Amino acid sequence: RKMASFLLKSVLIVVAVFSISSMAQASDPDILSDFIVPVGSAIDGNLFTFNGTRAIFGSVIQKFSVTKVGKAEFPVLDGQSVSLAVLQFPGGGVNPPHTHPRAAELLFVVKGSLEVGFVDTTNKLYTQTLQVGDLFVFPKGLVHYQYNSNWNESATAVSGFGSANAGTVSLPTTLFATGIDDQILA
């Protein structure tokens, strides 16, 4: 009886350890310093400054546009577990259904209005109409979209992510532009 109890406790401990270790791998790694300095970079204020979004303000938007600011574009984000994207929608513009496998998304509308929605794992659709100043969260890994239903006004939103590399899987591209046979998709 003692042996069975010991075995049960041992199995539970092993399961708990593997559960914790797999959870730790599902997010950005913790770093052992305040920040990671990219090779060849000087450590000054410029390291922590990104000006790649300056040009997007004041420009006329003809089609949906995303300006990403993740660790690929701003290397000092490596290890910080944050990134963002500026989404610009012309009138009638859409960010088609997609997912972010490594992070939740917090969308903040700064201009215009957006129709947004996501589908949970029970296939329930949650939708909302957002105005300037509204925020909406898209849970990690769930299919979601944004749409500017106002054909007379552009819209802009800023999305924050809980990862330096949230990843994006665009469903239309993934399903219809990768050579998957139509019979499989039917």
TrEMBL record:
Signal peptide start and end residues: 1-26
SUPFAM superfamilies membership: RmlC-like cupins
InterPro entries per the UniProt record, alphabetical: Cupin_1, Germin, Germin_Mn-BS, RmlC-like_jellyroll, RmlC_Cupin_sf
Single GO MF annotation: manganese ion binding
Amino-acid positions noted as binding Mn(2+) in the UniProt annotation, renumbered to this chain: 98, 100, 105, 144
Annotated Cupin type-1 domain residues: 48-186
SUBUNIT field: Oligomer (believed to be a pentamer but probably hexamer).
Family membership: Belongs to the germin family.
Name assigned to this protein: Germin-like protein
